[in-house]
C-alpha cells in the first residue's frame, strides 16, 4: 500500500488522517494520502519562511540556477518513476504523458532558471533640482513564501510551471496538489533532497479545499502570494482569502474556448487540430476546445471528418498500445460530464457521435469512462455551449462571415484561448487581434514558447506568467535612487 505523505522542511510527514487515492482506469486503490491539518500547514509555511533567511536566501543566482538544472536532470533520470506515477493518478495514455507531462515538467525548471540568470533590470540617470545628478536602478527581490494550489489534469506540468519560476526567483513554496493526483508532487520531494535543495524551500501539503489544506494554506498570514490553476469558482474563494493581508494572486481559471475553422483552411490539418483540442487528455484541458465554429461551405464535410476521428480514439489503460483516450479523473467528474451529455439531448442537440459510456471489459468497467462526443444543432443559449464541461466533447455550428465568427467566439464570460484555422494571413491577423483571449493559436493548438506571456482574460484569470512576465508576480521590483 503506497503512502503519500506531506513533505515539510525536507522530511516526509505522516498524519493520523488519511484518504484514498484511486485509479481512474478501474477505480482500484493506489494508496493512502496523509491529509494535512492546520498544524501541518502552519509547519510547512514556517519551514518555507525559515528557508528564506537561511542558506537559500543567501544563495547566489548562479548557484540557484545550478541546483534547478539539477532538479530537471534528476526528474529526467527518474523519468519512468514520474511517468508511472502520473499515469496511475490520471489514467492518461502513455504517449501523452511521456511526450508532454514529464518532459515539460522537467523543462520548466531549466527554462525559468535561465531566464532569471539573464534578465536585465532598468536604470536611469536624472538631473536633480540642485544641478547635480542621480542614478535610479531596479532590483528584484523574492516575493517570499508562495502558496501553489494545483489542478489534477496536468499535475506535474502545471505545478512545476509555478514552482520553477518561484524558486528561480529565490522564493520558497508550499504546494497543495489536487487530492486526486498526489503522486508526482510527493515524488518531487525526493528529487529536491537528492540534488541538495535546502530544507523548507519546497514543501507539500495534501488535502482538500474548504476546511482542509487548501483553505488553511490560502488563509495563512505567512503566505506572501498565491498562484492557482483551476475552476473560476475556486479562484473566487481563494481571491477572497488573499484579500486578508492584501496578498497578490496569479490565476489561470476556467475556459469555454472556441475553435474557428475558415473554408480556406488546410482541411486535414484543421480536423486533426480540432481533434486534439477537443479530445486530448479526455477533454480535461483548460485550453481545450468545446465550441467549434466552421464556415458554412465546409461545415458538413468537417462534421463528418471529425466524427471519424472521434470514433477512432480507442479507450483503454495507459500502457496499452494504440490507446488514444483515457478516463476522466473521478466518478464525480464522470457524473458531471454525463449530466451535460443528457442536457444536450434534452435541449434538442443532434448527437453526431458518442453521448454515453463506452463498453469496457473486466476491471476497466469500474473506471471513469465517457465517449468522445460531438453535437450540432443547438442555439448559442444552450448549457453545453455556455458552461465549461471539461470533458471530451464539442458542439459544432456553422458561420458565414469573419465578423460573425468573431462575435460568436467572444460571446462568453471566459477568455482563455482560441484556435483559428485559415491559410489567409490577413484573416489570421485580424481575427487573432480581436478575439478576447489570453492566447490565440493560428493553425496550431497547445504550442507553447515558455518565454511568452500566458494567462486568461475576463473570468479566465488574473495576471500573466511565462518568461519575464513570471518575474512580475514572483518578485518585488524595487527602485534604488542614489544622489551623486
What key phrases describe this protein's structure?
16 helices; 484 residues; 7-stranded mixed beta sheet; 22% strand; 2 domains; alpha/beta; Aldehyde Dehydrogenase, Chain A, domain 2; 6-stranded mixed beta sheet; globular; 23 strands; Aldehyde Dehydrogenase, Chain A, domain 1
Provide a descriptive summary of the structure in words.
The protein has 484 residues and is of the alpha/beta class. It is globular, with a radius of gyration of 23 Å. The chain contains 16 helices and 23 strands. The chain has helices at residues 38-52, 55-58, 61-77, 79-90, 94-118, 155-168, 183-195, 213-219, 232-243, 267-279, 299-311, 331-346, 383-386, 402-410, 425-434, 468-474, and strands at 2-4, 6-8, 11-13, 18-22, 29-34, 123-127, 133-142, 145-149, 172-176, 202-204, 225-229, 249-252, 257-261, 289-295, 350-353, 373-376, 393-399, 414-415, 417-421, 439-442, 457-458, 461-462, 475-483. β19 (417-421), α15 (425-434) and β20 form a beta-alpha-beta unit. It folds into two domains: 2-253 and 460-483, Aldehyde Dehydrogenase, Chain A, domain 1; 257-449, Aldehyde Dehydrogenase, Chain A, domain 2. Helix content is 39%, strand content 22%.
